[in-house]
Design a protein that fits this description.
This protein has about 180 residues and is an all-alpha fold. It contains seven helices and no strands.
């Protein structure tokens, strides 16, 4: 379930990473500002790993992951519902903070869960994230080419991110069931 959740996060990451500048440049009020939107996303990602680490230590890794997935989804939704410069800039800040937080928290979680050999589960997660990075831009790019805009591709990405939250929830429930003591008859 965690691997599927991470695949979904990979879709959310790569669609925005691939098309954010193009989306911004396609908006009349943002033409010529794509570089600034991408710079803001990158600057926002800079302190994010540390911030998410602090948050997850204080309020728990699962809550932090739920929040990061939700914020990533909000950043995508903002690109659909409001195309003003301010909205796209806020979206890029939220995107920068959330995508790298998902990566750092997920890999840290796996490292703690498998301290004797974290490379195997980390490689599986990375594989699923990489598959998403190959598939999602092709699908969203095709939709954008056919439809002349990114709207349906972004909606599809939101659906995938929602599935990611569901997979996170199922992974959490499975982990909690494993931790429950066995009831003896």
């Amino acid at each position: 379930m965690l691997q599927l959740a991470y695949f979904c996060a990979g879709v959310g990451y790569v669609v925005t990473a691939t098309f954010l500048v193009a989306i911004a440049e396609s908006m009349p009020e943002l033409q010529g500002q794509g570089w600034l939107v991408w710079l803001i996303a990158g600057l926002s990602a800079t302190p994010a790993c540390w911030l998410w680490d602090v948050f997850s230590r204080r309020w728990g890794q699962w809550l932090a992951l739920y929040l990061a997935y939700t914020l990533n989804s909000v950043s995508i939704l903002m690109l659909i519902v409001n195309t003003s410069l301010a909205s796209v800039m806020v979206s890029s800040v939220i995107y920068g903070v959330s995508f790298i937080g998902i990566v750092s928290m997920m890999l840290a979680m796996v490292g703690r869960a498998f301290p004797e050999n974290p490379s195997r589960p980390m490689s599986r997660l990375t594989f699923s994230y990489g598959i998403a990075q190959m598939m999602a831009p092709a699908v969203v790019g095709y939709l954008a080419d056919v439809e002349g805009n990114y709207t349906n591709g972004l909606w599809l990405t939101l659906v995938v991110m929602a599935l990611g939250v569901l997979m996170l929830h199922l992974a959490r429930r499975a982990k909690e069931r494993e931790a429950e003591p066995a009831l003896s008859p």
